[in-house]
Amino acid sequence: MSKLLLQPLLAFLLGAFAVLGFAPFYFFPATIIALIGIVYLFAKAPSAKATFMLGFQFGLGLYTVGIYWIYISLHDFGGMPWWFAGFCTFCLCAFMALFPALVGYLSKRIGYLSISTAILWGLSDWIRSWIFTGFPWLTIGYSQVPHSPLAGYMPIIGVYGVSTISVGIAACIGIWLANKHQPTNTTWRRNVITAITLFIAIGSILKVVPWTSPIGEPFSASLIQGNIPQAIKWSPDAAQSTIDQYVAMTTSSQADLIVLPETALPVIASQLDPAIKEELSTHAKQHNSNVIVGMVDYNRNTQEYFNSAFSFGSATTQTYSKNHLVPFGEFIPLKQMLGWIYRDWLNMPLSDLSRGGAQQQPMLLNNQKVAVNICYEDVFGEEIISQLPEATVLVNISNDAWYGQSYAADQHMQFSQGRALETGRMVLRSTNTGATAMIDQHGYVLAHAPHDTTTTLNVTAQGYKGTTPYVLWGNWLFIILSFVLLVGLLIKQRH
């Protein structure tokens, strides 16, 4: 096979191999190895144009293998024709692949590959988190959560900072391999080895730093997984049986906190039978507990619908409404232009919701301040910290049944593990089909319910108080350091 075809194919395979660093595999060295390989190819490439193509092929491998489940959502559950679902999935992967492509191109133009590649990759992951409302799936830093020593940096510089460090370590090794047959600068090589060793050692130490401390007594929690098939979840004929099932599962628990999944009850909250609300509230009050349940809320004054969570029980009823909505899934971008897709191609319920607001407060339930977030909101660390440091525990309610028996739910749980590390808080996850779990403040999964089963995960959780550096600064420390270093490189290049 000619070199013209071999290198792009190798880049694609390296991108696909990098997926092993993410859940459900958690083999964090795989992503580092893949990054070593692509930086090696960058260093050997004859031009910036060549590195652009190599970066694009790497991105295609990473995203087509890593987020193939978008096709399942569009075709199997959205009803989109297979060819159009495949086309849309490929277009999303190709768009995301542009980011590592631009990293390759710009780093080659700037030079100093060991530094510029790392900075630009971290910044590209960050830009993906907000451009076009953001889709930071498979951000490189998550591949190191929770087992890698580099995960120790999460409470300080967040996931994008860990992306930068991960790529930086890989870049140094990749460049050394690319130049190993040339006369080697012994001092440079020794400095690189020292720097890598220090980064790993410091990360290992940071992993055991107690950024936060327990507050109050441990409390019991029941995380309910209803396992309602997505095909019938919004069927009017199945609505009552779904409600009955969740009520029965709720009233069989005596936990201090009972959590139901996103939109667990398939009705508008104002239309829920008052007897059901009374039954949930009475049961919780009898045990001095509270129930968090996902439902759709409707504001008659503004005629807006919200993806919301309600609390019932010993505390006053409180509400949280999802603020970061999924484009095309929960709201229609450019509605006048793209509305035909929903009318003619898709069968997506709740595809035109409104945002709940960015400054919502934690729910005060007994002695805990519970920061609720809904579905993929917990992919955005800078938004999760808006309820901190007041919140003592994080609760995520989700429904990843849209993605079938893929590994989307496991990837989503890994991102929750990242939030636990950044905030120093336990995360309780209640989902429809998985991954229902309890994650400790160090990002480790302490309890995990089997996927695609009807079950209740009973756990004992602990609230935490305190402020990690990331809670204090958010992404700003990473952003400022990245731009300072990038400007320094540009100035150095000119001289």
Description:
The protein contains 16 helices and twelve strands. With 495 residues, the protein is an alpha/beta fold. The strands form two sheets. Strands 5-4-3-2-1-12 form a six-stranded mixed beta sheet. Helix 4 runs antiparallel to helix 5.
In which order are the strands of the major sheet placed?
A: 5-4-3-2-1-12
User: What is the share of helical residues?
Assistant: 40-55%
What is the distance, rounded to the nearest whole angstrom, between the alpha carbons of the first and last residues? Answer: 41 Å
Number of helices: 16
Q: Beta-strand percentage?
A: 15-25%
Low-confidence stretches: none
Instruction: Note the overall shape.
Output: globular
As a whole number of angstroms, the C-alpha radius of gyration is 23 Å
Task: State mean pLDDT (0 to 100 scale).
Answer: 92
**Total number of strands:** 12
Could you spell the SSE succession in H and E letters? HHHHHHHHEHHEHEEEHEEHEHEEEEHH
Structural class: alpha/beta
Question: What profile does the largest beta sheet have?
Answer: 6 strands, mixed
